[in-house]
Amino acid sequence: MLNTLIVGASGYAGVELATYLNRHPHMNITALAVSAQSPDAGKLLSDLHPQLKGIVDLPLQPLSDAAEWADKVDVVFLATAHEVSHDLAPEFLKAGCVVFDLSGAFRVNDGAFYNQYYGFTHQHGDWLDKAVYGLAEWQHEKIKEAQLVAVPGCYPTASQLALKPLVEAGLLNQDQWPVINATSGVSGAGRKASVTTSFCEVSLQPYGIFNHRHHPEIVAHLGTPVIFTPHLGNFPRGILATVTCRLKPGVSEQDVAEAFHNAYHDKPLVRLYKKGVPALKGVVGLPFCDIGFAVQGEHLIVVAAEDNLLKGASSQAVQCLNIRFGFPETLSLI
Amino acid sequence: MLNTLIVGASGYAGVELATYLNRHPHMNITALAVSAQSPDAGKLLSDLHPQLKGIVDLPLQPLSDAAEWADKVDVVFLATAHEVSHDLAPEFLKAGCVVFDLSGAFRVNDGAFYNQYYGFTHQHGDWLDKAVYGLAEWQHEKIKEAQLVAVPGCYPTASQLALKPLVEAGLLNQDQWPVINATSGVSGAGRKASVTTSFCEVSLQPYGIFNHRHHPEIVAHLGTPVIFTPHLGNFPRGILATVTCRLKPGVSEQDVAEAFHNAYHDKPLVRLYKKGVPALKGVVGLPFCDIGFAVQGEHLIVVAAEDNLLKGASSQAVQCLNIRFGFPETLSLI
Amino acid sequence: MLNTLIVGASGYAGVELATYLNRHPHMNITALAVSAQSPDAGKLLSDLHPQLKGIVDLPLQPLSDAAEWADKVDVVFLATAHEVSHDLAPEFLKAGCVVFDLSGAFRVNDGAFYNQYYGFTHQHGDWLDKAVYGLAEWQHEKIKEAQLVAVPGCYPTASQLALKPLVEAGLLNQDQWPVINATSGVSGAGRKASVTTSFCEVSLQPYGIFNHRHHPEIVAHLGTPVIFTPHLGNFPRGILATVTCRLKPGVSEQDVAEAFHNAYHDKPLVRLYKKGVPALKGVVGLPFCDIGFAVQGEHLIVVAAEDNLLKGASSQAVQCLNIRFGFPETLSLI
Amino acid sequence: MLNTLIVGASGYAGVELATYLNRHPHMNITALAVSAQSPDAGKLLSDLHPQLKGIVDLPLQPLSDAAEWADKVDVVFLATAHEVSHDLAPEFLKAGCVVFDLSGAFRVNDGAFYNQYYGFTHQHGDWLDKAVYGLAEWQHEKIKEAQLVAVPGCYPTASQLALKPLVEAGLLNQDQWPVINATSGVSGAGRKASVTTSFCEVSLQPYGIFNHRHHPEIVAHLGTPVIFTPHLGNFPRGILATVTCRLKPGVSEQDVAEAFHNAYHDKPLVRLYKKGVPALKGVVGLPFCDIGFAVQGEHLIVVAAEDNLLKGASSQAVQCLNIRFGFPETLSLI
């Protein structure tokens, strides 16, 4: 049994982590923590999230001293704000913990990126160098050796799972950037009160056009430019990405199918559609990324769907945990 | 043309007031105001509420000195917090304005009520005495003479329109209190950011059981005790109230139908159902209260539906305006 | 391992049964079946319900001859229309199968009830006599011996779990009937296409006032009259029941709390709220019924929430299975 | 006063037509009609759509003989299935009526198009030649002379309003097709019962990839190829189109702004955003198409939002009526 601490357990991703880890046969949740200033400190997780009543009734402990906890646990999950993860992760890492960070603090090995997109100067270049990007289907070998796994963002997970097989197989026309239109449920904005995410204000709309922080994350790890337009959708959970690409002349539908088959036929948490494309309802509450596509002439449309809180955050973090410690990849997930 | 000021114009009720008054042939919107501290001060109403772009593009002016405005307008609508209305209304009234207050500040002529349910000590007993409760279908004559109209709460409007014909006709068994179960859309909680009303948190649930401030308002104006249980529903607008009553022995379905007919056959904004009961969709976006009922033995169920922001707030305020100034009752409303 | 057949597997309750039984360690799904005329016959369950892709990919076999299957399975779940269950159950029972019927065909031991509320004449009075009503928390001993379990309706489950402790403890005033206002998600109407349940038509509304077939089911098993008003809510899943009761003079809040504690402190799938009342979001997707209450004077309001497809149908059926065969009561459910 | 007949009045677009024409000062609704076989024949419109109770209580008359009505009315609105419009329109046209057809029956002057995309052989090439495509902002002069106006589809309206100023101004790179990703509310599928549009089945998903009938309609009238991917969204009304384009080298943001300004500065029902892009909530229930855009380098993203039933159908039909008869363009619309 590995002892684990979940920091930021009161948020939407934290709740999902608690649920998975509570039923994981090799994990013991030593404690749930929130920042010392959080108004949720001292409450039970199940007071905030009544679905967990009788399942995970642990208290949310205020985290004032990371070192104190670092000695008691083997594994730390950080479902915290980017700056908080940036500060906390090294403390746990120095104590020897394995850290799965769900924030953006260690995803891109480029200090300037943090200044521009996250508004802080990165202080831990050494850990940036060592961090492994946790796109589970593509980083299996590196995750097995990692001490710090930077779990990808929700949009980047869907976008890269849709595009990476095509990029790797060299099927895309270089002159025309893939167009990623993605729509996310409101939970992607977190649990903090905001007029933007209040019930009466939400409606379908694009945001962050040409300047969303997930754009450079996608480009950095995909290795090719894209146009990425995120949208807020009027549903609580899930992401659907519609990706429009130009194929190289001569590339056939069969070539595309093979590229996806080769990439994912042995990956239990990517489900390929042989015909048709996925709908959001197929993945909500589940740890899968579903992918389908259609070809007409040189035009290719790939559709990827996932639960933004699961494959886009918490279940991918647990998937990385399973890979890291040699457990079956889907353990506790399905 | 009457000049009018809408205070609290940035909230959901304020927007509806602006829409109605903008198209009202006898009204001129002199200005829209918000509290001087509001972050919305200085913005256009249509920046906050894009549906009004090109329709009502007026700025939201910070209200620092009521007296300054009082001289410029004939009519004031207060879509403000209870304490704010309590403080502002007398300033406009002293200057001779006719005031329609959508808050709870002048609805119940009982000082203790404000301490208990609104958390402030009422300072304007004289205006409490003079205020007319604006339940339009029942207060027509008084509204015609009023300088201060206290527009009823959203739940009290639906509840009283459902019950008052029965109470007035003496049809209800006194030993058994009517049970009002009502469900309101999220806009009833206002536009302020709150975790409770955030998109991912809302689901059907009762609240304020036995202690909602609309309970004593209903009882005070209905003149009979009731059990009132409000619920938050997962929709933006509307209230549906299901009222279960015990009839006096011998009262027939026909008696009930007559009571409703007598009360409302000449009221253009109450729609009686001859068969069946209303659904919420019939009233959303419209200024009506729809009422239907069913009888079995001594048991009576009345269902009333309205848009909480319209008949439960803004359209009723404009209906009162129309009555007060002798305009057709539905002018600009349908 | 017990072999099981799920009939009516393509509907919403059937899908949930398939999900639970697929992960149940002592159950083997021998086959999924639908009626021979169903347009879904021959498809994969996961074609209709993509969330099950890769999890339950079994085909939906057309059921033409029950006897053929009866010999191959130990346990049958009927998630079928009432008339279909009425006809099928005896065939499986005669062959020795244990049958869990989710329809209304065997819930009330009164032939006239079926003519009036279900529109058919019941032909199997012998099985009506032997059927055990599967309200799991209250019928534990009988379920252990049952060959035919009539799993309760969704509204009756919530209503009875809310009221039965009070009735059994004799706390309710006999002169005033409890008022049950309950709101159900749209899935309660099944998966068949209908204008009534189409996306653009659904809004909060009461229906079946004074004549819903779940009313006599509640009364028959509770043993006391009630007023029951069901509502359609604009959400896919869940039931919230708000029950307003009159207590006998002298009954205290503590008496009520004790009645609930005594009834449910050792029942793993009823969660009592010590303070506050449940919201729908706490139970959606979960096999619990959550119960809370409030008392003021002689007035008592009990709120019960459940997932209509789970505790109101499929999870209760599996709970009954677990009880019947001596498995842990929550096995595969949480 | 012009006498008018609305055929197909029971559907979602028909209801909106009835609402607009009922309040139009120059129009008299002579009758509402549905096909003779419709189960709605004989009912009141307000029985099906309770929001119209007391507003439009006319009966839905079965249309068996178009000629009978043709003599009594000046103007006919066809909110009917494509084949029905195809058959009916000529009958009314021959009698001298002015016809506004909301179906696809006369939108594209290419017989083969109807065989391929609508499944019938077009019999009325003469009327196809005379029909005027009712994209109101671009066809003003032709609509003024038209006897048959083919009101554009919902997706084509948003798509063309977004792209036509750019195409006309020659700003787009010809080598790269614009990518139109559009999401429509469920009402776009009509009011007929279907599992696909039932409440529990709807979730965000693409459909009709590479073969939606609105694709050739867009291409035919825009005069340039596009990639068009429609999506079903989980909301009742509205369309949001996100259009990604490549600009010609050297084209600036200012050039784009000027193209939009030139096209729409004097068009009352297109609202241009000076900064930001529209959200769906700004247009639901309103007759506008809202348009905003963003440029980065050679990449341009245009966002257009409209109510699919209004600017995408009924309000555009009334706008065409107003243009045709010389009424103010927005009469009865805002």
How would you characterize the overall build of this protein?
Chains A, B, C, D: Keywords: Amino-acid biosynthesis, Arginine biosynthesis, Cytoplasm, NADP, Oxidoreductase. Chains A, B, C, D: This is N-acetyl-gamma-glutamyl-phosphate reductase. Four copies of one chain form a homotetramer. The first copy, chain A, has 334 residues and is of the alpha/beta class. Chain A folds into two domains: 2-151 and 313-325, Rossmann fold; 154-306, Dihydrodipicolinate Reductase, domain 2, CATH 3.30.360.10. Chain A is built from eleven helices and 14 strands. The first copy, chain A, has helices at residues 12-23, 45-48, 66-70, 82-94, 111-118, 125-130, 140-145, 154-168, 214-222, 253-264, 314-325; strands at 2-7, 27-35, 60-63, 75-78, 98-101, 132-133, 148-150, 179-184, 205-206, 227-232, 239-246, 270-272, 289-296, 299-306. The first copy, chain A, has a seven-stranded parallel β-sheet, sandwiched between helices. Chain A has a seven-stranded mixed β-sheet with strand order 9-10-8-11-14-13-12, with helices on one face. In chain A, helix 1 (12-23) runs parallel beside helix 11 and helix 8 (154-168) runs parallel beside helix 9. The two termini of chain A are 20 Å apart. The mean pLDDT of chain A is 97. Chains in contact: A-B, A-C, A-D, B-C, B-D, C-D. Chains A and C meet through loops of A and loops of C.
